[in-house]
User: What shape does this take?
Amino acid sequence: MIQAIRGTKDILPDRIAEWHFAEDIFRKVSANFAFTELRTPIFEKTEVFSRSIGESTDIVNKEMYTFTDRGGESITLRPEMTAALVRSVIQNNLLAQSQLLKLWYVGPFFRYERPQKGRLRQFHQYGAECLGSSYPESDAEIILLAVSIIKNLGIENYKLLINSLGNESSRISFRNHLVEYLNKYRNSLSQDSQFRLDNNPLRVLDSKDEKDIEIISSAPDILDFLDTESKLYFETVCDMLIQCGIEYQVQPRLVRGLDYYSHTVFEFQSSSLGAQDSFGGGGRYDGLFAQLGGKSSGAVGFAMGIERLLLILENENLVIPNAEVTDIFVILADNNLIHEALKISENLRNLGYKVQNDLQRRSLKSQMRDANKSMAKYALILGEEEYNKGEIIIKNMSDSSQLIVSIDKITEYQFNIDR
Ligand code: HAM
Assistant: This one.
């Protein structure tokens, strides 16, 4: 038997209702905030990601699915959307047409990580990006959109962590102090952190190693290094969140795993997820346009892992409305009537009902069982006797009551179904 690739998952029919439920919310809430969808290819030239996410990040260093295509070009399956979206906005000159762009996306992403619960090699993200504003209200609005998605999904038990990496000069000043501090403990740091100390020192703050955590606990605090402009920016974002009733915790060790951030960074965590407790994150990335060859522009956004969102719903037993159920199951007492049954089904589908037929010529009893299993609200039973009189039985599956109506009038019957 050929197995699916490690770290990938089939989304089977019995789970698809959850995906549709979540995707409907992404679409609806994005529209509430006047964001429009953007779709880009699943693969890009490798440099789109290596130049933006950062050469020394885990994603670029260890996790990208990169290959040379038959034309000799280095191609990468997208590990995230932000860089690809910025590439598309520059290429299609979208910011020239509109001074402000508010975009959302959903789709598969690829990272060669060690698979475990909530960590896949092909996973899915919903995300949103606000381009063309360097004002804190766009940070606040992006966070409000993320929170609205979470709430609409029914998730209440989560934490929003927020931090500021400041502008470039604040970050350089912090980085120098951090390196000076960490260098004193270099030999006690984990191998990974020693490597990061040389290549990307802020990322040491993200270490999960126990000894590292102890060392980091006394490290300088980035918020102490923010200059007046950066401090004011961060305070304004926080103030706007407070005004809107959004609860958050300032977490000065939050740096995130991608290099393109400046000023605001944030992450959403859920205690019901176990080790992979972060289910979404984002921040401001004003430098990315220039890095990818475009005109510099303010930009802020976030992404959420859909598998992790669905895991939270599952772990917290949150009920997902099932929109996939059948309304009407057409049952035949005699296989000769299949033509008539197909015609009736088609007329009812044209009215918007979800209708199923028996396609396996099964016995009446088996069809009744199938109708029950499909959770159909009604069964239409077409028997030889009724058919000869031009009639059909309508059975209400919830109370088993039956009614005989003329086949000609079936499209006029008021089935008690929400559509
Ligand atoms: P990220 O933190 O790398 O940010 O990913 C966002 C979310 O994607 C994570 O919180 C997690 O839920 C999900 N995720 C990431 N990797 C995996 C995986 N291997 N398996 C399952 N889920 C995963 C970004 O991707 C940025 N582009 C976010 C952003 C948008 N920043 C600004 N705009």
